[in-house]
Design a protein that fits this description.
- It is a single chain.
- With about 375 residues, the chain is α+β, with helices and mostly antiparallel strands.
- The chain has nine helices and ten strands.
- Helix 1 runs parallel beside helix 8 and helix 8 runs antiparallel to helix 9.
- The longest helix has about 35 residues.
C-alpha cells in the first residue's frame, strides 16, 4: 500500500511540474519576465511638471515602469532616439512599430534583434496593443544591464550607494514632460548563511520523523510538524500575493487574476500545505503521506522557485529583503523538513507492518532399519 501511495505521489508531482512548465512558456512570451531578485533598486521620483491624472510607478522589482493616464488626452513616451515610442490615452495603448524601443524593450535584457522597419526617423506607425489607460514597459534608462557593477560599486560593494539619476521623456500634446527617478545599488546578503539556516532547519524538522509514531514524543512532534506545515503554507501564500502586488496588481480582483495567471502553482501548493497541516493536526488516517506530498510540493514550487532572493538585495515584494528571505527560508524548512519526516514515518510504518518471513521445517532423514533376520530353532 505504501508503495502505491508513493507511486501516486510521484505521478502527481510529475504532472504538476509538467503543467508548470506548460503554463510558464506563454507567460514568458508575453514579457512577464519579472526577476526573482536584483541588487539594483529603481525608485520613481515623480513627473515634472506634475499633471493631474498622470501617474507613474516602478513594478516587478523595478523591471518595468507603469504609466497611467487619466487626463483625457493622449500622452506619448519618447524612445531612445527622441522618437515617439508609446502612446497612452482614452482610446487605449499604442506602440510605434518604427521605434527601435518597441523591440528593444520587449525583453528585460534589451537584446532583441531590430527588424528592418525599425527607423526612428520614419513617421510613427501606431499599432494598438491594449485597452485602458495604463501601459507598462522595460526602460533601459531606469535599469542597469551591464554584466559588471559600476566602478564605484566595485570599490565599496558593501555600501548602499547611488548609481545614477535617470529621466524618461514624455510628451503631453506639444509640451514636454519627464519622469525622473533614481537607481541605487543595494548590497546583496550572504546567500551561504541563508542556505545554511534553511538546511539546518529542514534537517532538524526532518529528524522528527525518527521518533516512534506510537509514542507520546512522536505524537507531539507530528502535531508540531502539522503546525509548521500550516505556517509554511501561509508564508507561501503571503509571498505569492506579495509578488503580485509588486507586479502592479491592484484590488482583490487584480490580485486574484494575477495569481491565477502567473502564480497558480505556488498558490495551490501553499493552500495544499495548509490543508495537509490541518489534516495532520486532526490526526486523520494516512497523514504521513499527506505531509510528505504537501511538503515536497511546497518546497519545490514555493521554496526553490523563490530561493534566488537569498543572494539578492532587492526582493520582488513590496517589503524589505530581510522579511522576504525569512519567509522563503520558512517555506523551505517546512516543506523539505515535512517531506523528510513524512518519508521516515512511512518507512517505519512499512517496516513494522512487513510480514515475518515464513519458516520451513526441515525433517531429519531417518536411516532405514534393516529388518531382523528371523532365527530358526
Amino acid at each position: 500500500m505504501i508503495r502505491n501511495l508513493l507511486r501516486r505521489a510521484g505521478l502527481v508531482a510529475a504532472a504538476a511540474l509538467t503543467a508548470t512548465l506548460a503554463t510558464a512558456a506563454p507567460a514568458a512570451a508575453h514579457g512577464a519576465d519579472a526577476p526573482d531578485g536584483t541588487d539594483y533598486r529603481t525608485t520613481v521620483g515623480g513627473i515634472t511638471p506634475a499633471r493631474d491624472g498622470l501617474s507613474v510607478r516602478a513594478v516587478e522589482a523595478g523591471a518595468r515602469l507603469e504609466l497611467t493616464n487619466r487626463t483625457g488626452r493622449p500622452v506619448e513616451v519618447i524612445g531612445y532616439s527622441g522618437e515617439p515610442y508609446l502612446r497612452v490615452g482614452p482610446d487605449g495603448v499604442f506602440e510605434n512599430t518604427h521605434s527601435p524601443a518597441t523591440y528593444l524593450n520587449r525583453t528585460l535584457a534589451g537584446d532583441t534583434t531590430l527588424p528592418a522597419e525599425a527607423d526612428p526617423a520614419a513617421p510613427p506607425a501606431w499599432r494598438r496593443v491594449a485597452d485602458g489607460p495604463t501601459v507598462r514597459w522595460h526602460d533601459q534608462r531606469a535599469l542597469y544591464r551591464e554584466s559588471a557593477p559600476p566602478a564605484a560599486v566595485r570599490a565599496a560593494p558593501d555600501r548602499e550607494q547611488r548609481v545614477r539619476d535617470w529621466t524618461v521623456p514624455l510628451r503631453d500634446g506639444a509640451e514636454p514632460v519627464e519622469i525622473h527617478g533614481t537607481l541605487d545599488w543595494v548590497p546583496p546578503p550572504d546567500a551561504y548563511t541563508w542556505w545554511a539556516v534553511a538546511t539546518v532547519g529542514l534537517l532538524a524538522v526532518g529528524a522528527l520523523g525518527l521518533l516512534p509514531a506510537g509514542s507520546v514524543p512522536g505524537t507531539r512532534a507530528f502535531a508540531g510538524l502539522g503546525g509548521l506545515l500550516v505556517a509554511g503554507g501561509l508564508a507561501a501564500v503571503a509571498y505569492t500575493v506579495g509578488r503580485e502586488l509588486d507586479a502592479g496588481a491592484q484590488g482583490v480582483g487584480g490580485v486574484l487574476l494575477g495569481l491565477l495567471g502567473g502564480q497558480l502553482w505556488a498558490l495551490l501548493t501553499g493552500l495544499g500545505a495548509v490543508a495537509a497541516g490541518a489534516y495532520t493536526l486532526a490526526r486523520r488516517p494516512a497523514a504521513d503521506f499527506a505531509v510528505a506530498l504537501a511538503g515536497a510540493c511546497l518546497a519545490l514550487f514555493a521554496g526553490v522557485g523563490n530561493a534566488a532572493v537569498f543572494g539578492r538585495g532587492v526582493a520582488p515584494v513590496p517589503w524589505p529583503g530581510s522579511p522576504a528571505r525569512m519567509l522563503v527560508a520558512l517555506i523551505l524548512i517546512a516543506g523539505a523538513g515535512a517531506t523528510a519526516a513524512g518519508v521516515l514515518r512511512l518507512h517505519a510504518a512499512r517496516a513494522t507492518t512487513r510480514p515475518a518471513p515464513r519458516t520451513t521445517s526441515r525433517t531429519t532423514p531417518t536411516t532405514p532399519t534393516t529388518p531382523a533376520t528371523p532365527t530358526h530353532a
